[in-house]
Amino acid sequence: MTALTVNNKSHLLGRVIKGSIWTVAGNFASQILRFGSNLVLTHLLFPEAFGLMALIQSILIAMHLVSDVGLQQSLMRHEHANEPHFYNTIWTVQIIKGLIVFGAMLIASPIAAAFYHQPQLLTLTPAMALTAVLSGFNSTKAILLNRQLKVGTLTVMDLGVQVLGIVVMLAWARLSPSPWALVAGNLASSMAAVAARHYWLEGPGNRLHWDKSVIKEVWSFGGWVMVSSTVTFLVGEGRTLLNASLVDTRTLGLLSLSTTLAFVIWSALQQICGRVLFPAYVEVWQQRPQNFSSVVARARRIQLWGGTAVAAGLVFGGQALVHCFYDARYQDAGWFLRIQAAGAVFSFLTMSYSGVLWVLNRPKLAALLLAVQTVFMVICILGGYWLGGVHGLVIGSSFTGVLLYPVSAYVYHHFGLFQPRVDMPIIAIGVCLALYLFLHGV
């Protein structure tokens, strides 16, 4: 190994550690802010308000994902990402995408209102859709800084934006307790994010530009990103939309709350993946592919043990957590949370490979794996609801990862990335947690 290679490896490790520290600290602060604001909001608003917002967010995310052509991924991985003609074309396409999402939300709002029998969606949905227009104007400076693993400034900026949104949300809920408080907070955050990215971050500004060669390159990669993102919607937000067709808005709000708590640590770990691990994986694969498997194994081991430790704590203490912090209207979320935490352990096994197939330039396979997960999820939710009502729905939805793991193991074994020594202890813990809940009648 040459001195240059050692120095490059050491430099990358230093940037990864620094980026991870910033991301963990930022996510911890973000989760504290979110948890605190949710506690206050649960006393100001009813569970139905959170159910409506969960439904609207799912529709909005759906529109974003089905129109996702991999703009951020292209900027993160392309060798010409720092050239003005490239990132300005990306910015232009991003604006167009935001306008398309807004238009689609306008069309979807009366359909959603009629289908879910919620007239408020007629006005709430278009208002939330304005966040898509605002997000389209976000500067590419943030992505280019992330590409270089310079995440400290981004973390501080994101926290500032979040604080502003929370202040607006709480003030509105205090004066007028309704779902509009949640919409107002999201709009305030979106406006602040656009301003901060353009005027606070260092880097080249954006202007409208259209380069057909860039569009062609992005589409060759982004076509499969769109397919994968569409399936990602079906896995994530599609779950919420499917649940909404089976349960009332109160139960949906409780499920939204418990899901947020169950995946709180995993959200932090996935943010590290997006901001730190993905660019690091790209660099390792391009410069030292022989080390890729060991790097992935180390990253997965840290993610799995961190996520599993928190999940185990929620299985044993989830009910007490909800009882301590939430009033009587939200107590049913406690047993939702315990079941979801146990099932999450099995989901972590596949989720810990986040970004790996993209680095290997296998977007088609990533989309296929997500499609399989979607089929399993729908079967588990519908089958669980048919067999056991809401209780069965929660169990079926939570343990989809059990069915997915063998498929995932087969896929990653093909690339020499199946790591049973990493996985087996986690599986054993997941089985013990599930048995504990079963024997105690949860």
Textual characterization of the structure:
The protein has 18 helices and no strands. The protein is globular. α5 packs parallel to α8 (180-199), α13 packs antiparallel against α14 and α14 packs antiparallel against α16. It is mostly helical. It has helices spanning 3-44, 47-66, 71-77, 84-115, 121-136, 141-147, 152-175, 180-199, 212-235, 237-244, 249-262, 264-287, 292-325, 333-351, 356-359, 363-398, 400-413, 420-439.
SSE ordering? HHHHHHHHHHHHHHHHHH
Instruction: Give the distance, in angstroms, between the N- and C-terminal Cα atoms.
Output: 55 Å
Form type = globular
User: How many domains make up the coordinates?
Assistant: 2
Q: List the total number of helices.
A: 18
Radius of gyration: 22 Å
Task: List the topology elements.
Blueprint: H1 3-44, H2 47-66, H3 71-77, H4 84-115, H5 121-136, H6 141-147, H7 152-175, H8 180-199, H9 212-235, H10 237-244, H11 249-262, H12 264-287, H13 292-325, H14 333-351, H15 356-359, H16 363-398, H17 400-413, H18 420-439
Helix pairs in contact: 1-7, 1-12, 2-4, 2-5, 2-9, 2-10, 2-11, 3-6, 4-5, 5-8, 7-8, 9-16, 11-14, 12-13, 13-14, 13-18, 14-16, 14-17, 14-18, 16-17
